[in-house]
Structure formats: C-alpha cells, structure tokens
C-alpha cells in the first residue's frame, strides 16, 4: 500500500520542468538570458506534451493505491470476522461444557445410587443398565464439549495470528487429573 502511494506522489513532480543547469548547449547561445529562456521553454514543452501521459499515470497510480487499500481493508475485515466467529464458538463450547458437567455429575450420582440399590436388591438390572447408559451418554457429551472447546480455542489462537505446528505432538493429560469413569465414594 505504501508503494502504491509513493508511486502516486512521485509522478506529479515529473509535470514540472527541471531547473536550468549549465551545459554544453548553454555555451552556444548568445547570452545568459537566452540560456535560461531556452532551458525553460524546452522543459515546458516537454511537460506540456507529456502532461496527458503523466496525468493518466497519476490516475492509474491513485487507482492502484485505492485498490491496495480496499484489499487491505477486506483482509482486515475477514480477520476480524474470523476472530469474532472463534470467540462465539469458544463461548458456546464453554457453555456446553458447563451444562454437560452438570449433567455428568447428576448422572454419576444417579449411577452410584442405582448400583447401591441394585446391590441391596431395591432395583432391578434394567434400571441399573439405564443409569449406566445415561452416565456414559453424559460422559460422551462432556468429552465432546471439551473437544469442541479445544478446537475453538485453537481457531481463536489461529485467527489472532498464532501459528500451529503440526509436528508437535500434544501430550495426554495425567490419569489422575480428571475422572474418566464414575467412582463410588469409599
């Protein structure tokens, strides 16, 4: 964009005749006044005959600068859109993770209660199986929500200009960090 603007500013200076300089042509004229007048006249006629070409070149350079600015503006708007979309996706994934965490805790408590009731003979195997299936479904939903959140965070990082190195293999979390299966209190 700077290059296009610099080209636009450089062309108008070519419209004006160059200042007179001493040269071999000036010695052949009869006086100093003739040398100055001759140099100015030659410069003016050159500027007059090239004026249309120079004006067209200025307009062309201005159009190139406008195009470069419009392209830059479009890229900035697309980048802002990517950032906004990534933030919305991350916020949505965080809300879903919170909801699935609540559902997982409830399903875990229900499964623990069903196991206890099954051992004492207060409920049948079908009820226990349904509670275990509900727990598994809640666990799958929570895992998917966490995966969506990680994906949205990566998209936000990328939209903000961060890089992603596919050669780096992420490490799995430690086993004791988060509960994977429902456990009964001891």
Automatic annotation (TrEMBL):
InterPro entries: MdtP/NodT-like (IPR010131), OMP_efflux (IPR003423). SUPFAM superfamilies: Outer membrane efflux proteins (OEP). It holds the Pfam family OEP. One of its GO terms (molecular function) is efflux transmembrane transporter activity. PANTHER family: OUTER MEMBRANE CATION EFFLUX PROTEIN, OUTER MEMBRANE PROTEIN-RELATED. This is Uncharacterized protein.
